[in-house]
Design brief:
The chain is of the alpha/beta class. It has one domain: Purple Acid Phosphatase, chain A, domain 2. The protein is built from five helices and twelve strands. Helix 1 runs parallel beside helix 2. Its cofactor is Fe(3+). It comes from Secundilactobacillus mixtipabuli.
């Protein structure tokens, strides 16, 4: 089984990059499943709308994951409960959290499970992602060993820690949230694929997808600033492609995907 994962889609430019390049990547890489993190995909870079969610699916996403901006666009409450292709972090606290934290899909004769988790270092104190992962993975492995985890976290140490904690029990742990692709893609002990952060998909000219002026202003004066999404060219698209033995659930290969001005897609 081959999985294509695309990192945080930011604003209109991110959606445009998905619409332009995701069909081409799927044509050339031939993944059996495509997962996209869409938590920054609205024009203001926070949350997701039903229209954009449908656009991501129409462009080729099979599952859309979220993160700490899940609830920022209130429209999500109107549709997250009626779909199994949009998932939010499974460790949001409470008994009646809208939506679901994991999903599954049939891939030929195999079943792929996708889990969304959020870290707690420098982020809101959600339920323990390690404990939640333990419970979910134990149950899911009764049905399938092929499990992909989108771990939405701030620090590489927490992401690396949960990858090692789940080593051999999940097929892949790929980080999101920091919007900068890391150079550490690897298969840990020939079992679990890992990458600290897949990077972002959106405007390349800004600072993590935002217009530079307000971000720099905040560094200079330490006063609150309203961040606006960068809308100019050029764009960037980041992610990874993972090969998995669908009988053992072990990953066999992971490779980064990067499309930008310095890495044009010319297949």
């Amino acid at each position: 089984m081959r999985i294509l994962f695309i990192g945080d889609v930011v604003g209109d430019r991110g959606v445009q990059m998905i619409q332009t390049y995701l069909p081409q990547l799927k044509r050339d890489l031939k993944p059996q499943a495509t997962i996209v993190n869409g938590e920054n995909s609205t024009p203001v870079g926070r949350g997701i709308s039903q229209k954009i969610y449908k656009q991501l699916l129409e462009s080729g996403a099979d599952v859309v994951t979220m993160g700490n901006h899940t609830w920022d666009n209130k429209e999500i409450y109107e549709f997250i409960g009626s779909t199994n292709k949009l998932i939010r972090p499974a460790n949001f606290p409470g008994k009646d959290v809208p939506g679901r934290g994991w999903t599954k899909l049939k891939v030929n004769q195999a079943t792929l499970a996708v889990i969304n988790l959020q870290g707690r270092v420098f982020l809101p104190p959600l339920d323990d992602p390690f404990a939640v992962a333990d419970k979910l993975v134990t149950e899911i492995r009764k049905e399938t060993p092929v499990i992909f985890v989108d771990f939405h976290g701030e620090v590489t140490s927490e992401k690396r820690a949960i990858a090692l904690y789940l080593k051999g029990r999940v097929s892949a742990v790929v980080g999101t949230h920091t919007h900068v692709q890391t150079n550490d893609a690897q298969v840990i002990d020939h079992q679990t694929a890992f990458m600290s952060d897949a990077g972002m998909t959106g405007p390349a000219a800004g600072i993590l997808g935002m217009q530079p002026a307000s971000v720099i202003s905040r560094f200079l004066n330490q006063r609150p600033a309203r961040y606006e999404v960068e809308t100019s060219e050029p764009g960037i698209m980041s992610g990874c492609v993972i090969d998995i033995n669908d009988e053992t659930g072990h990953a066999t290969k992971i490779k980064s995907v990067l499309i930008d001005h310095d890495h044009p897609y010319d297949r």
